[in-house]
Amino acid sequence: MLTHTGGCHCGRVRFEVIAPAMLEVADCNCSICNKYGYLHLIVPGERFKLISGREALTTYPFNTHTAKHFFCSTCGVKSFYIPRSHPDGISVNVRCIDGGTVESVSVTPFDGRDWEKGRAEFRETTDT
Ligand SMILES: [Zn+2]
């Protein structure tokens, strides 16, 4: 486990996340993740720290409103959010982690279109 840093494009939103150097991430095919090309690194809430940019975050609520889709109001980048599959956790966008600390990224497809089924399968592979 080590501390990765990352953030949005303009730099207002900065965070730290504690995770292995070899990351396992989920590629979700739901309507929103598909458009973002978002790659999910899901961690328990206590392993994520927002360093700056809370005031820059705008929320995009849709569907059940369980998920909190945060994006930077300046540059529009969605660097992390609270996922519907793990309301006590944080999903960090691996594409927004700074280079240097990540050794490898292995991507697992997540069936977000068939959400209930996808979540059941995904929960079996994550401990959060
Ligand atoms: Zn930004």
Structural account:
The chain has 128 residues and is mainly beta. Helix content is 13%, strand content 41%. The strands form three sheets. The protein has a five-stranded mixed sheet, with helices on one face. It has a three-stranded antiparallel sheet with strand order 1-2-5, with no helix packed on it. Strands 6-7 form a two-stranded antiparallel ribbon. It is globular, with a radius of gyration of 14 Å. The mean pLDDT is 89. The structure holds zinc ion. The site of zinc ion (ZN) has 9 residues, from loops.
Biggest β-sheet, characterized? 5 strands, mixed
With strands numbered from the N-terminus, the spatial order across the biggest sheet is 8-9-4-3-10
Tally of extended strands? Answer: 10
Uncertain ranges? none
Fraction in helix = 10-25%
Computed over alpha carbons, the radius of gyration is: 14 Å
Instruction: Please give the count of helices.
Output: 2
The coarse silhouette is globular
Helix and strand sequence? EEEHEEEEEEEH
- Derived from helix and strand composition plus strand pairing, the structural class reads mainly beta
What ligands does this structure carry? zinc ion
Rounded to the nearest angstrom, the distance between the terminal CA atoms is 15 Å
| Beta content | 35-45%
Rounded mean pLDDT is 89
Give the arrangement of secondary structure elements.
Elements: E1 2-7, E2 14-19, E3 22-28, H1 31-36, E4 39-44, E5 48-52, E6 57-60, E7 69-72, E8 80-81, E9 89-93, E10 104-110, H2 115-125
Parallel strand pairs: 3-10
Antiparallel strand pairs: 1-2, 2-5, 3-4, 4-9, 6-7, 8-9
This protein binds zinc ion.
